[in-house]
Design a protein that fits this description.
Layout: E1 18-19, E2 29-35, E3 41-47, E4 56-60, H1 70-82, E5 85-89, H2 106-119, E6 127-132, H3 134-145, E7 150-156, H4 162-165, H5 173-182, E8 184-187, E9 196-199, H6 200-205, E10 226-231, H7 240-248, E11 253-259, H8 269-283, E12 295-301
Helix pairs in contact: 2-3
């Protein structure tokens, strides 16, 4: 199915509402559940902007991550300080949303993103997506599906096509046999005590949503500016994946920053400051460097830990590699 034909949820989606996390005086965050097909519900939190037409930042978590992670909360803090809106949510089978993680697929989570855009994100003011790891892949798919809504996209260690290009090759013959036999396998992870469920459906269904294939055209069709950042010491998703995405974003301005000592999460204070500066650069005219035409820009961040990330030296290499 073409991304642009994703059905929009019914306007009568069932929304719950409970008191949100504590914020500074004068700010409020609405939390609730967005009804989805099959009786499932996606949990969300929406911090309303203080100014008409102000930007809204929407965070897309990574695989098995939630809307309460460090990057999500840092973006909420930034948005609150600037009077912007902020939307956070959990995919089906993640965090406070309903459903079994064993049943999740790239297509289903992509549809969750689009449903939140259609039903929860405000239509007034620019909408900026920030996607981490798998959330970066889903952000690319959402930017293609809703080109009239997305004003900018930032990806952090984008895990584009990981279900077909990366994950299968890391499974042993015994693990692949178990997936075929049982339909799912649970693998240990350094990011928590609970093992990650890897299902046959996740691996096979992801094929339909690949963005790095030459005949797909998803990336070439994206029109909003895209900013990518990737750690060069990422043990999970090679930084070359972000280079490949940047090279294929031929219809817009795409800028890639590589952090030479950065890991996969990029959640250190200086990493969060760098991501925040990228958000400012897209949301505030003139706040960030960037070409307005169709170009690819690569930057290498080499600042020591006690220096500001946004003071890093950058260079432009149209069509080349760092």
């Amino acid at each position: 199915m073409d991304d642009s034909t994703i059905p929009r949820p019914d306007s009568g989606s069932d929304l719950g509402s409970v008191s949100g996390p504590e914020l500074e005086e004068g700010l409020s965050e609405r939390t609730g559940l967005l009804g989805r097909e099959g009786g499932d519900a996606v949990a969300f939190a929406h911090l309303a902007s203080r100014h008409p037409g102000a930007p809204t930042v929407m965070f897309l978590p990574g695989f098995r991550s939630s809307m309460d992670g460090l990057k999500a909360m840092a973006l909420r803090t930034q948005a609150a300080a600037r009077g912007w809106g902020c939307v956070r949510f959990d995919y089906f089978g993640h965090g406070r949303s309903s459903g079994s993680p064993d049943a999740g697929t790239i297509g289903r989570w992509r549809d969750d993103v689009v449903a939140i855009i259609d039903e929860i994100a405000p239509t007034a003011g620019p909408l900026l997506l920030v996607g981490s790891s798998m959330g970066g892949w889903l952000g690319l798919l959402a930017a293609a599906a809703r080109p009239d809504r997305i004003a900018g996209l930032i990806t952090v260690a984008v895990a584009a096509d990981f279900t077909t290009d990366l994950l299968p090759g890391r499974l042993s013959a015994a693990e692949r046999a178990e997936i075929e036999r049982e339909g799912v396998i649970r693998l240990p992870t350094p990011y928590g005590s609970d093992p990650y469920p890897i299902s046959r459906a996740l691996l096979t269904e992801g094929e339909a949503h690949r963005v790095l294939t030459d005949d797909n055209g998803v990336l070439a069709g994206i029109r909003c500016p895209v900013r990518l950042v990737h750690g060069m010491r990422d043990p999970d998703i090679p930084w070359q994946r972000s280079v490949a995405v940047t090279e294929r974003l031929t219809g817009t301005s795409a800028h890639l920053t590589l952090v030479n000592d950065g890991d996969h999460r990029l959640s250190r204070p200086r990493d969060l400051a760098l991501i925040g500066a990228m958000v400012d650069g897209l949301a505030i005219p003139g706040a960030g460097a960037g070409s307005s035409g169709h170009s690819a820009e690569f930057g290498l961040s080499t600042a020591p830990e006690d220096e500001q990330e946004n003071d890093a030296k950058t260079h432009e290499d149209r069509g080349g590699r760092p």
